Amino acid sequence: MVRRSHQFSGSKDIAARPVIRRRRRNGVPFRGLLVGCFAVLVIMVSPVAAMAQAAEQAPVQRIKPAGNDRIVARLIAQLMPKNHISARGLDDTISQRALALFTKSLDPLKLYFYQSDIDEFNRNASQIDDMVQKGDLSLAYKIFERFIQRVDERVAVAQELLNGDFDFTKDEAIVVDPDVAEYAKTPAEAKDRWRRQIKYALLDLKDEGKVGEEAVDTLRRRYGRYARRWKKTDSDDLLEMFLTSVTNGYDPHSTYMSPSTLEDFQIQMSLNLDGIGAQLREKDGNTVVSRVIPGGAAAKHGKLKSDDVIVTVGQGKSGDSVDIVEMPLSDVVDLIRGKAGSTVRLGVKPGGVGNVEEYQIVRATIALEESAARGEIIQHKNPDGGKELKIGYINLPSFYLDMDAARRDEKNFRSSTRDVRRILDDFKTKGVDGIVLDLSKNGGGSLTEAINLTGLFIDTGPVVQVKNSDGSVQAYADEDSGTAWDGPLAVLTSKFSASASEIFAGAIQDYKRGLVIGDPATHGKGTVQTLMNLGQRLFGNNRQNYGALKVTLQQFYLPDGQSTQLKGVLSDVILPSLTAKMDVGEGDLKYALEHDTVPVARHNLYSMVPTDLVNQLRKKSAKRVEEDEDFADLLRRVELYVNQKDQETVSLEEEAFLARRKELDSQKEEEEELEQQIEDAVIFRDNYYNTEVMNIVADYIDGLRKENLAKAN
Fold first, then answer.
1. Could you tell me which CATH number the domain at 272-367 has?
2. Among candidates 165, 167, 161, which has minimal Cα distance to 192?
3. pLDDT of 145-195, one tens digit each?
4. Contact 7/252 with Cβ under 8 angstroms?
5. What does CATH list as the number for 374-525+559-706?
6. Domain residue ranges in the chain
7. Edge-to-edge strand order for the sheet containing 389-395?
8. Hey, CA dihedral for 272, 274, 275, 281, is it positive or negative?
9. Which of 297, 463, 653, 702 is surrounded by the fewest CB atoms within 10 Å?
């Protein structure tokens, strides 16, 4: 099964009627709405295969649409125009966008298709809307079969090229910007493209310490593995890719979720699953344990460790095991997951070497605590003077809500608001002087939770305004009087803070309730999605999983009337960062909706963010940053990253290539650092950036006290 990275902005598995029905819970409408789980997950498929000789290839094995696919396609064609905020029909423009998005999803770097293939597909560019309305998926299968044919051709030529020698002293370059790259027009041109791709890959491997036959063998296996994986694509995968291309023609957050993707999303939102409690990654066809989650079944078993390689998986205490070497990671995960209390047998090479040992692990329900709110008290003394302060730090990775449990009125259903309130209560008993709520890696989640969480810090009032497809605007308010914390509050954001994070940070800013620190602006996603369970739509129940449509049905606005769409929430105090320069904002996505405004919703103003104090904080922070060696190094890396990012080509002359790598591959370094932050069990990372955040917060607390706007607990 081929899985691709997605950016989710949907809710959990929600039946159609409960999505529309509204119930009041804690003063806000309880709705099946999500305003973003922005996944900053970039899966880079290495230059993978080679080219030409189509006539010599065996016929491509055809996959066929499943029996339900026509029904799903017709239903998507009906639901999109009726529910999307634009109220736009499925027309020729959407059709043309869908074709471009679909071919790009298969061949983003333009390495496989010929220009003649694209020209042939484009003759149907205005027909996809009519075809989907009829449930006709023949074009999707035609394009996919052509793609598989081209992959086979490229892999064959790649293997042939790997038998030869490469001149790394030659002054030539490779195009690395997909927008600048062009599809090959001839087999000779395609072969030359792949000769350069292989040179790039070999230089890349040399930078990792792999040379000679080891590097060549790595590429042979990599290219072969890539071709095999695409051939394992099933009808569900292809339907998801194709229909998501259609829905993405409306906006980048409307998608079709296949049944398996829907199940994965439900796990993400409920924060628990049944399994062994280990994070896995793939490396050169092997399944490698990247981390054993504390408290999980594997941790209690005691033998499975990081860097172990899993080679077989068996079900139950005895029986045959499945060889998982070269198996797609998503399929491996499906084998290892299972009902709590059942046994899974893992054939493991400890540390990736030596003999295989078999571990029998009893699966258990894993509470993904590290995806939930966690808090820690930081003792901080400002280098500019003053006494040591207790600052309560809360790391909130998402706005989560166990919607099924909440809908069933279970007493202790899981939610981000409940968890944060519990942390705040603990902080207050320990006498903290201020609070930092870290949303810098929070991609969003439940709209209900964004409203309820804001209510912990304001008395009452509108938190977000929502505009529907008919132009009507409705304000959603925190109606529970009182607060869980009324002292100094700082919200830490980044360009990765999206959707529900932007609602919270924007409302706190509009109320002048707290200080926003971080990147110049947040992600800029100002739309609301709902998840429509297709089985529920078709049959009135959820007994059959037909997947779901995640559709953008509303746009949201802050209390002051500004949409966060495209522009995001601006920080009061800006800190330098590499994330601010990454192309990960809403404005970097295809067909993002436009920014606009609605009238102001009347609300109270707090006096917690005086303009003169904010100006002082900016000046003092800028001075510290200017004098800090770590920030100086960061600014140097940012400049290098921007220079590299803007390059359209990369030299394939060995000395120039390796010098460029040695200088700094800033993007890779930053991505690895962000991944490490997510995987680490550490709540607060004690680094120079967070130290400066605490310096700003200490200055903020001190300034509020001097103006008699805050008192120590």
1. 2.30.42.10
2. 161
3. 999 999 999 999 999 999 999 999 999 999 999 999 999 999 999 999 999
4. yes
5. 3.90.226.10
6. 50-251, 272-367, 374-525+559-706
7. 374-380, 389-395, 434-438, 489-493, 515-518, 573-574
8. negative
9. 653
